[in-house]
Amino acid sequence: ASVSEPAQKCCTENIQPFLTSILEELMGPISSGFMEVRSLFDKEVNEIIQDFQKTNDMTRLKENVDQLMTLPFNSVKMEPCYLKVNLLQEFLQDLKTRFKVYHIDFVIQRTQNFMQELMENAVYTFEQLFSPSRQADSAKVATTIEKVKLRVLK
């Protein structure tokens, strides 16, 4: 009871006025990283579509979709996504001194973990939605892949 009033006053005067600007600064790199995940998924599926349109090979299509399923664990391809979030290091240094924010690496790592989870969910959903269509007419497969990709990106 004796701490409540001073703590409330401290939060109201020293933290609350800065929350909006802090969130805006944090969301820039985070949003950029998640947009990079979206862009990578889009690019990879477009490559599958283009390859299928060139070859019309259902076996190769299955291999490409199987390879897409490993995308979240491909550190080389996911690296550009992770690098966007590394910009948090700079933003959080200022917060560290002003508000005693520690464990900056933990915040970055958790954000990167969420990015990997998002990609896992995207490729899994893609595979689940596309799987029944693999037996479809090969002339419609590229269109189906595009529709599934757009559905996943929503």
What's the helix and strand layout?
Blueprint: H1 4-55, H2 58-68, H3 75-86, H4 88-99, H5 104-130, H6 138-153
Helix pairs in contact: 1-2, 1-3, 1-4, 1-5, 1-6, 3-5, 5-6
Describe this structure as you would to a colleague:
The protein has one domain (3-153). The mean pLDDT is 88. The longest helix has 52 residues, at 4-55. It has six helices and no strands. It is mainly α and 154 residues long. 84% of the residues lie in helices and 0% in strands.
Task: Throw out a few tags for this protein.
154 residues, mainly alpha, 6 helices
Note poorly predicted spans.
none
Mean pLDDT: 88
The amount of helix comes to over 70%
Number of strands: 0
- Strand proportion, as a percent range, falls in under 5%
Largest sheet: none
* Tally of DSSP helical segments: 6
The secondary-structure class comes to: mainly alpha
What would you report as the Rg, rounded to the nearest angstrom?
A: 22 Å
N-to-C span = 48 Å
The tally of domains stands at 1
| Helix and strand element order | HHHHHH
Inertia-based shape: elongated
